[in-house]
């Protein structure tokens, strides 16, 4: 397996003393290139922290993160900015489109900021993939939620990043729009060999992926290959059962 990103013994804490929270507790993980990976776990399991550390949006306390052959630890701000601009795409739950720009201008914005000319053939291919040919001149308030998220996905793909991180990309969408966005992400992997890592709590969304990694208490506790909804639900149920004795013990101590 070609590795697009890897983390080794990653730890991250917030607060100190009695208020300390260990968000990541020695996570080691490889992300395969050209695969669609979901990261799942209960609230507070560390999945968003892991994604932010991998995407160079946050820094870990210890351990290492690599995007391709580049080690993030110790990179200066300028180098980190270049890495995020050239190697990483990000899709946010809240779309994060610029309201005064058209869909086309939003898609091309990262390239414009980087001073790079768009590859017109690739741009046309991305727009065709997301199905927005007739919406490029529309501003975000003229688009549905699903269309806005498709613009956000196209923006993430336009610079041909090594890896795209998607943080609950269907969280603000109805089921039909969510299915459209998930199908789009699936096609970008199948047709363009894109690498995508998606944080989600939804077993239906996870079923679109090649692999699901499960986190609990800041640690990787399980994974599935070629998942379906039922298999994901089964693992989640086991995780809930495993957490129940700890919760009971904590309640008794309190």
Automatic annotation (TrEMBL):
PROSITE patterns xref list: ABC_TRANSPORTER_1 (PS00211), ABC_TRANSPORTER_2 (PS50893)
SUPFAM superfamilies for this protein: P-loop containing nucleoside triphosphate hydrolases (SSF52540)
GO MF assignments: ATP binding; ATP hydrolysis activity; transmembrane transporter activity
Ranges where the ABC transporter domain occurs: 5-242
InterPro entries named in the record: AAA+_ATPase (IPR003593), ABC_transporter-like_ATP-bd (IPR003439), ABC_transporter-like_CS (IPR017871), ABC_transpr_LolD-like (IPR015854), MacB-like_ATP-bd (IPR017911), P-loop_NTPase (IPR027417)
Entries under CDD domains matching the protein: ABC_MJ0796_LolCDE_FtsE
Stored Gene3D superfamilies: P-loop containing nucleotide triphosphate hydrolases
Keywords annotated in UniProt: ATP-binding, Nucleotide-binding, Transport
Cellular component aspect of the GO annotation: membrane protein complex; plasma membrane
Name of protein: Putative ABC transport system ATP-binding protein
